[in-house]
Design brief:
The strands form 4 sheets. Strands 12, 13, 14, 15, 16, 17, 18 and 19 form an 8-stranded mixed β-sheet that branches. A hairpin with a 2-residue loop joins strand 8 and strand 9. The protein has 598 residues and is α+β, with helices and mostly antiparallel strands. The chain is elongated. The two termini are 64 Å apart. Helix 9 runs antiparallel to helix 10, helix 12 crosses helix 13 and helix 19 crosses helix 20. Helix content is 46%, strand content 19%. Among the domains are: 84 residues, GIY-YIG endonuclease (3-Layer(aba) Sandwich); 109 residues, Alpha-Beta Plaits, CATH 3.30.70; 153 residues, UvrC, RNAse H endonuclease domain (Nucleotidyltransferase, domain 5, 2-Layer Sandwich), CATH 3.30.420.340; 50 residues. It is built from 20 helices and 19 strands.
């Protein structure tokens, strides 16, 4: 039996790639897995078709699910590998041989070797990676061997040993794979040009190598050494055709904490990523309820201190999406470009996803809090003095002034209150005059509310621009309500929000919940008004048709309108039913008239 909390978690889980953790009642991680589609993969554990006894036992012990979103399947694979080794969950296969993913290393030595390794050591060497598969590493190492004459021996090529002629060139020199640095046939400065280009290549800066070989090709051409120029051109083509399938991160980006925060009027959502050797090794998300309208900076600083203490982090560098002064010997960075910015963007993605999941869960389990949060957000976005608990929205509908009608729809606690919807026939306006029609309807609506001593709304929304808004304000002024009720207009074309006595409209974010609620109200008012207008036109058309039928009087007309609603339905019913309703004589006259029109 799946608990209600896990059901809600499954329903709100993202469909993006990532890593998930199953925790038991003691809050201990019992399983870590990766997924191309988190929602699809995690949901599969809770289907009734599972036959494996071990899997059933795993599912039975799941009390909580955590997950983190990553950029790709490869990133999920690397993160899963790291977390399994760190936490060694009960239900995961543990690789005791300590094998890991490959890195490319530039050794810290004279005439540095460029090698592959599966172990990162603190030996002063430069490590690049990790790579998700060894095929990519072989491809890159093959490119290096084709581009540069690198040594492969393990000799100590110190200047002293070279001067003392301790070593002799080997076969690699004679076949052209090495330039003989061991005998001083190549200087270390010349060799370091290769290493510099390789370093840039591994950081994604292939242009350095291309420019080097272009220069070599041009010099060879000027010296009429066309064979050497051709070899340089082939190397340039090799570099241009190379496309790396793996994002290579400089392993100097180790020992970094990454924090990001996003918030609304009532809550803040913080994501924490701990990065080591270019990899995420730990993550957490927290939701914080605001008590005294604290700023994002205050909340994030508190969260940074608590999370670093919780995970015993001693990292000296913190990346965050808020600017901080350096404190507690910690260097704070709010990057704008580069690898640091990419890591921060990943954190922000996880914070955003965490917020969306929380809001969906709240909507299911605590609808009152959901409504309250939306109203708080609307109060902030629309610059209101109070939460818009009760909102009313007006719209007009007519075709060239015929059958003018209007609608008033009501939202309470950010939800439609359909029993309070009202429709209006325009009584005092002749012709298509939206402004005058709006003034009439608003005046009639609130005059009646005052007479009945009913509750006034906190906010009035007018479907239209400045003209409709001004007309509505005139009506409120007549009733001395213009200072008591907040009012705004929304223009359809650019979704501009207009306020009284303010020529500059407000533009809300297209994805904001406030704009979505206003649009929902506007569309609902429009639908309600259009529906009423169509019914009125249809009824008028039917009524005028009956007026021209000889032998059919007012009483019979009303009887048929009340019973059958439309000419279409009257055409479809049998003569027996009509005779039963209005008699044989009137039925014959009605049929004769309708047949003459067909």
């Amino acid at each position: 039996m799946i608990s209600s909390s896990i059901k809600i978690e499954l329903s709100t889980m993202p469909t993006q790639p990532g890593v998930y953790q199953f925790l038991n009642k003691e809050n201990k991680i019992i399983y870590i897995g990766k997924a191309k589609n988190l929602k699809k993969r995690v949901s599969s554990y809770f289907r009734g078709t599972i036959s494996s006894r071990k899997t059933k036992n795993l599912v039975k012990n799941i009390a909580e699910i955590k997950h983190v979103v990553v950029n790709s399947e490869s990133d999920a694979l690397l993160l899963e590998n790291t977390l399994i080794k760190k936490f060694q969950p009960k239900y995961n296969i543990l690789l005791r041989d300590d094998k890991t993913y490959p890195w490319i290393v530039i050794k810290n030595e004279a005439f540095p070797r460029v090698l592959t390794t599966r172990r990162v050591e603190k030996d002063g060497s430069e490590y690049f990676g990790p790579f998700t598969n060894y095929k990519t590493v072989r491809t890159i190492m093959g490119i290096f061997s084709n581009l540069y004459s690198l040594r492969t021996c393990s000799f100590d090529l110190s200047s002293k040993n070279i001067e003392n002629k301790k070593y002799k060139v080997c076969l690699e020199f004679h076949i052209g794979n090495c330039l003989g640095g061991c005998e001083g046939k190549q200087t270390e400065d010349n060799y370091q040009i290769y290493i510099s280009n390789i370093r840039d290549f591994l950081k994604g800066k292939i242009s350095s190598s291309i420019n080097y070989f272009k220069n070599e090709m041009n010099i060879a051409s000027e010296n009429l050494n066309f064979e050497k120029a051709q070899r340089a051109k082939e190397k340039i083509d090799l570099l241009n055709n190379y496309q790396s399938k793996s994002t290579v991160v400089d392993s100097k980006l180790k020992s970094i904490d990454v924090f990001s925060i996003i918030s609304d009027a009532t809550h803040a959502y913080v994501n924490y990523l701990q990065v080591a050797y270019g990899r995420v090794v730990r993550f957490d998300n927290i939701e914080i309820k605001k008590k005294l309208d604290e700023s994002d900076k205050e909340i994030l600083l508190m969260s940074i201190l608590n999370l670093r203490d919780k995970f015993s982090s001693k990292n000296k560098m913190v990346i965050a999406n808020v600017d901080f002064d350096n404190i507690l010997d910690i260097k704070f960075i709010n990057p704008k470009t580069g690898d640091n910015k990419k890591i921060l963007n990943l954190s922000l993605r996880n914070a955003t996803q965490f917020k969306l999941e929380k809001l969906k869960q709240i909507q299911i389990v605590d609808p009152e809090r959901h409504s309250s949060r939306i109203m708080n957000q609307m109060k902030s976005d629309l610059r209101l003095n109070e939460n818009p608990v009760h909102i009313e929205c007006f719209d007009n509908s007519n075709i060239q002034g015929s059958n003018p009608v209007a609608s008033c729809i009501v939202f309470k606690n950010a939800k439609p209150s359909k029993k309070d919807y009202r429709l209006f026939n325009i009584k005092t306006v002749d012709g298509p005059d939206d402004y005058a029609s709006m003034e009439e309807v608003v005046f009639r609506r609130y005059k009646r509310i005052l007479n009945e001593k009913s509750h006034l709304p906190n906010l009035i929304v007018i479907d239209g621009g400045k003209g409709q808004l001004s007309s509505s304000i005139k009506a409120l002024k007549k009733l001395n309500l213009d200072k008591k009720i907040a009012i705004l207009g929304i223009a359809k074309r650019l979704e501009e929000i207009f306020y009284p006595n303010d020529p500059v409209p407000l533009y809300l974010n297209k994805k904001s919940e406030t704009l979505k609620v206003i649009q929902q109200m506007r569309n609902e008012a429009h639908r309600f008004a259009i529906s009423f207008h169509r019914k009125k036109r249809s009824k008028q058309a039917l009524s005028s048709t009956f007026d021209s039928i000889p032998g059919i009087g007012e009483k019979t007309k009303i009887q048929l309108l009340k019973k059958f609603k439309s000419l279409k339905k009257i055409n479809e019913i049998s003569d027996e039913l009509l005779i039963k309703e209005i008699g044989i004589s009137k039925t014959k006259k009605l049929r004769a008239f309708l047949n003459s029109k067909n």
